[in-house]
């Protein structure tokens, strides 16, 4: 479903070069909850951003649903991105706007009809259990509620893949648990494949089926969660 093959990425800064990804290959199958874990600076964000081509590789290919994203025209890429939802650590919501407006945004950008947008917003708010907050301003919400809005927004275009960038790192333990339970529900009941990055081991243990461990731009260990963490 997602295949990275020999992907490398080097950043050039005024202080020299950084090899953020070094010959990274990764296979995520349909239905996986795939976790990438590693310390800050290991290359996790760069890897995640390869999957929706917010970063382009210096070498290697990125395939999603059998299509090579690195060879796509901007127009094809825009269409492909509708199939990939993204959830952020700091939510990235429009704080002064309503829940409705935030969740509707991806469909507004696509030019969907008002009726279609209303129907879809109601559907996803039900999934994240925020129907009663439809007209609330984002400012009035708790962190956990904001992340539910972030997840709802990511689901409005009915993506088959959800990318989660430290989605629970800004939340307290109890709220983290409820967001992880929601992500698991989205995976199980809607069949959405999830690729997440985290520096928190308990996130991997709670919801992931597979894991890759990153260090200095490389995947140094990978496999089923149970196997990787019980190896001697
Ligand atoms: P992680 O998500 O694991 O913290 P990142 O992918 O953000 O790791 O970063 C990997 C390395 O690449 C780090 O050394 C980081 O400072 C560097 N890096 C990331 N993005 C940029 C950028 N836009 N320009 C320069 N260096 C970057
Ligand atoms: P993360 O928490 O995912 O590691 P950072 O806070 O390191 O993210 O980076 C935030 C943003 O700054 C990202 O878009 C990343 O690409 C960029 N960035 C990270 N490191 C550098 C760097 N050394 N030089 C320039 N941009 C960077």
UniProtKB/TrEMBL annotation:
Residues annotated as coiled-coil are none
Q: Which residues form the ABC transporter domain?
A: 2-232
For this UniProt entry, the molecular function terms from Gene Ontology, in alphabetical order, are: ATP binding
Sorted UniProt keywords: Amino-acid transport, ATP-binding, Cell membrane, Membrane, Nucleotide-binding, Translocase, Transport
Superkingdom of the organism of origin:
Bacteria
The keyword Signal belongs to this UniProt entry's keyword annotation: no
Q: Which residue positions does the secretion signal occupy? A: none
**What is the protein name given in its UniProt record?**
ATP-binding cassette domain-containing protein
What organism does this protein naturally occur in? Oceanitalea stevensii
Instruction: Specify first residue, last residue and whole-protein length for the fragment.
Output: 1 to 232 of 340
